[in-house]
Amino acid sequence: MAPALLDLAHWSTWAVCAVIKLPQLAAVLAARSTRGVSMGSLLLELAGFLVFLKYQIYYGYPLQTYLEYPIIIAQDVILLLIILHFSGNMKRVLFYAGTFWAGWYMLALQKWIIDLAMNLCTFISAASKLAQLRCLWQTKDSGQVSALTWSMSAYTCAIDSFGFILTRFLFLFLLVLTRFIIMLILNIWVTATILHYRKNKRTD
């Protein structure tokens, strides 16, 4: 029963991740505006995903536990390019590309570097969620931020946590599991905040 549930969990996660950023991309493109979308949040999210992906590859984790991350990273890169385009900052593309490429290379130079980066990864990813929350609190307007994208992020964290528990490697994967649970809580918080400000705007 457990293997079947695990397969179902992985397939549902991959399916959601394949389209997870599409609602956000559609919202930004339709409005031709990035109002409410935090650039800092997106950059931190990308950094966290890259560290997490590199860590799993470095230590030879099963492919199915991280296959969705290249898909999400690609969508985040597209979203970043669109945000830079609408904000008139396309000249920063080379800087960001060079920074992330250098970081990806340096992570695997020494074991202690990748271990330290992974220890900090949860803080980096949490900071990305908090950056989006801060943006929402400051503007008190959800703008073009997609509640659907954030709710799907919460779903993938919940399923990934469930999948890790089913593999029965709870202690081995405790660091990763803790990250998923923290990200789940923060994703739900961001989603609730978006819906709160959207409801207030309609009421006004």
Automatic annotation (TrEMBL):
The lineage of its organism: Eukaryota, Metazoa, Chordata, Craniata, Vertebrata. The chain crosses the membrane at residues 12-30, 42-61, 67-86, 93-113, 169-195. Coiled coil: none annotated. It is found in: Membrane. This is PQLC3 protein. InterPro entries: MannP-dilichol_defect-1, PQ-loop_rpt. It is a multi-pass membrane protein. Keywords: Membrane, Transmembrane, Transmembrane helix. It comes from the Eukaryota. GO terms for cellular component: membrane.
